[in-house]
Fold each of these.
Amino acid sequence: MIIWADQKKADSLTEFAKKWGEQQGITVTVQTVANDLQSNFITANQAGNGPDVVLGAHDWIGNLVQNGSILPIALSAEARANYTDIALRAVTYEGQTYAAPYAVECVSLFVNKDLTQVTAPATIEELIAAGKAAGTEVILSLPVGEKGDAYNMEPIYTAGGGYLFGKDANGDYLAGDLGVGGEGSIAAAKKIGALGADGVLRSSITGDNAISLFTDGKAPYLVSGPWALGDIKKAGINYTITKIPGFGDIEGSAATPFAGVNCFYVASKGKNRAFAETLVADVAKDSSFAEAMFPLNELPPAQKDLVDKLKSSNPDMVTISEFAAAADPMPAIPAMSAVWQPLGLAQANIVKGADPEQTMRSAGEEIKRNIG
């Protein structure tokens, strides 16, 4: 049986998957696909020479279902009861469950306690004031870049009143209700523009340098995810993690990041479907797989029993898991692929001084054209 994953997931899974295979009387091979894992999987699966199982993000589901690349899976009542609500919601698409989650993640606010005493700012305005008082090179290290970063900007965008897609009564995203270009997104764009003008958001801060600006002591605040923790701990930063605040001058403002869920999918054309379904059932059954993978790729658990185990040994993971519970699952609908680039570029241009209303309306029009 063959499993495909990216480098970090493959490294963390290989040994345990091999042992699991021995218990089943089969050979399990974990193969690393370093680039374009999703598209390579779709192509290989269609050709009949893909893996039996693939590890990936939950927001692939809409595209994978549209391409007939994955099968629905059955989760036992016990497994479902052990999963966090956000994990189950993320892997449910059009009323069916399509994956076994094992980890959740979202961005949070990392604070250098040696640079500021404001370790849990109640508003973005309080964060900015404290950041300026710290006298550091950067107030808030949040990746923007020249082309934008809609994923990391989402908490600011939502705090300002923006949304991407409306939801139906079940909480499923509606491709026909696009928020980009609407009044809420324009209000958010104006906030983003003001933060750019004030030097709080900068296009010079990217995914490549955002974490190092924080670990080098050049910023008291960082917006990032659990993947930043390794570098932060290695640098010996005296840190804490708190939720990203909303704007103080907007009633009910809440910064809502995206929740991403890592999960196991069963390939529709794998040669070992029965074993693939057994493995995914075992992933879901309890936290054995997630716990075995954790030391080599620390991510907040999707399963409640592992969250409980980590409360004393790794409270950071529990904290981020709690923040993820209040986040919005990244939209898994195919229409989302039309959003990332235009929205990110619009936000970057607004940070650099472009007109917020015109730029956001144009982005919305482009996204609608691309959705079709």
Amino acid sequence: MVQEILRQEEHARSPQWLLVDTFGELDGNYTIVDWGGHPKEFLSLDKAVKGAAAKIRQAVTMVARSREPLTAAGAGRHVEVYPHIVGARLHGVQVWSGTDDQTPPPRPRVGAWDINLTTLTALGSPEWAELADIPEEQRGQERSLANMFAQVQTDEGELIAMKRIIAAVPGSTYQGIWTVHRRDGSSFRSHFSCRIYEQPVDGAVHRIARGISQEVATGSDGRPEPLVLLEHRLLEADVPAGEYRALINLRNLRLIRWVHGSPIPEQIAWRGIADEPAPEVHPDDHRTMIDMAKGLAKSSTTGRLRVRGVDGGWVPITARVSLVAIDQETTAGLVKFTIDR
């Protein structure tokens, strides 16, 4: 009995999994963003694990080259490394290091992702697709940022996140804990960390948020903690029947997300997935759309537009756009529209 208690205490003191971000820049300047299920604010590798920092860097180099998990044992040590890759880039690794008589605890569920802040599209790793329960037909391909947000419940930090998306300043970082809803009705709390980079894409320079997320514990009752949403600051009343509401980036007039409480129009193409036409405004209506955006400097604007439908045709809408202050420096457009019958 005494030996069993001692073994349990030893297990409680055993090393935990580290989540180390690399975000595809294999320069050795890695940070810890989660330690044993406890989120960390970009904790310096050298300051946190001085003795193991060099070995972790070596492990990062090895899994970046092999693109496969690594298990190493010898000289009384046992090391496990699991890479998280999006496209060709290693976004981070999960690392466990202990003695050869210790057993690693269960590896936390982690997924990596990219958000192209220029095109407002998102791409997740296979682990993220599994964790978030993304439909099979949408895995491994880019989808619209609004499609990603459609399954995410945000926290009080959404104002900051919206500013990061709209301003897209290279080098800026962001962390938060949001709730992700799965198709089976379940949900989980996801702590994410990301950094914005400039990256060449098809001959142009795009701004990309490279990120990694880990499932974290919920409250004591097993449910996510109460959240304060951006939309509570945008909207005071319920959405009237037949009206749709969305937040758009005024720099490129692209959809960021649907407003919570708004229905999602099934006949309009917006998801940015392979089996759906690309989101688009009719070419003859571009001038109207641009004039509406410019007019926001004075007041809300109204206009009639045709947008691409899921069947490839054009869906006529009547839209009213209002300027929304994310903060003193950053604005977005709140679009309220109805579909013309």
Amino acid sequence: MSASRPWALLSACPAYEVSPLIDAPKLAQDLGVSGLWLKDETSRMRLGSFKALGGAFAVVQMILDRAGGVDPMTPATRAIAQQMTFITASAGNHGLSIAAGAQVFSAHAKIVLSTGVPEGFANRIRKTGAEVIRIAGSYEDSVAEAARLAAQNDWIHLADGSWEGYTAPPALVMEGYTVLAEECRLAFAAAGRWPSHVVLQAGVGGLAAATAAHIRAFWPEQPTIIVVEPDAAPCLMESIRAGQLVHTPGPVSNMGRLDCKDASLLAFDALRHDADTFVTISDAQAVAAASDLSATGMATTPSGAAGLAALRTLDLGPAASCLIIVSEGPEGD
């Protein structure tokens, strides 16, 4: 999965800059591995999550596709964007990215949030001018409601998950995530050092699938790819075991952005070929990892620290060098 198209669009955005890739020798020593890199997404494009790459790119690309142009800032393209309303369900960060993208490019956004999403995310989304639609129920309920409202009102449904008959919009979101993987590729190539293991956290699986696909296609040295999920929501692991998408009911996890009971079809199709191993972590392990990262000055959530939590459960040995993604900053107030 190439990053060329989202790189060209996002690099022209004033808020875009390459997120830090931090060498963490002290943490590596604690883990008993030879090296550890942290891809720090906690300040990405001032939204504080890797999801800033996906939703915003998908919004602008869909605007350009409808306008038939290449510059989203022309008066003609903006006039078309003003007639477009995007709607999505979100656990927080994806909705914020859609809302911010719509604001920048003169479109409208409506974000469906279940009661489990912190009000801090809702307030940050409202500040972009987007409408927040609160519903009772789970994340899966909010996805169903977004799809219903999109059909009822002729709005554009821009989910980050995919299912049979609905793949094109989430494929754009995943394409945006490849920018993160390309940034890593360039940094490792410049340093002449490559990780032997890459740990990717997954909710519905978009980031993990997009990054893994980019690694398999473009990295000259191939790592072992490990996908980590909450033990309360192992939807990808169980789907891979079953050979088909399966629903994984379970308790609510404190890893809110990873607490997804249904995997994305696109992610399932990609990761069953591109990933080597699937592991799960507990809420307590994720909290401890978030505390460890915060002690280094990198404030994050249990979702953001899932990669480190997974490494603590694995015995990779002193020859291993690892890349993890600190996927988000602390939640909004």
Amino acid sequence: MAEIYQVHPETPQKEKIEKIKKALQAGAIMLYPTDTVYAIGCDLNVKSAVERVRQIKHLSNDKPLTFLCPSLSNIAQYAIVSDAGYRTIKRLIPGPYTFLLPATKLVPRLVMEPKRKTTGIRVPDQKFCLALLEALGNPIISTSAHITNDDEGKAPAAALATEENFGKAELFDSLEKLVDIIVDDTSETGYQVSTIIDLTQDKPSIVRRGLGWEAVANWAEE
């Protein structure tokens, strides 16, 4: 049964962040809020935990996993960012955007796309995530908590229903035996995934329209 941590939405308690950090470093899996949907995550550098996340989501090893970074400078450690990509990312972070970028050697093979050697990185606009990232000192995995085989990671029909039919309580109940930690910051469950922007080419392109896509559609695809 998962341990539940109630954290303040604006100023997450340092002692709780510290306990969660230590648990992740020891291999724990958590269910936690982001600025898009609730996500399943773990320490990027704990291989056994990453493997468990894949098992929970029924993801084969050729399906890349997105991870969260706290800043643009941190992204540059894990991805090769062109000048155009730098300008795009700087304009959009923090926010509900996933950037596809060529991975550096710091990205575990189990996380990246194996053929293209690319990775998906986000800088979330979410207090708990940013506090945990700062404490942990390295990225955390972020994959939608909705269990689905949809290649695009969209929430299944059940989860797209009204909150009365499938809200946070139902999500917690469905995953409490699969994860070690559940983080509750009093926010409601989101139902819109992030917008994915491909920055592996000279010209940015939108791969998936998610939350906030309208803000970038005109200049990213013109």
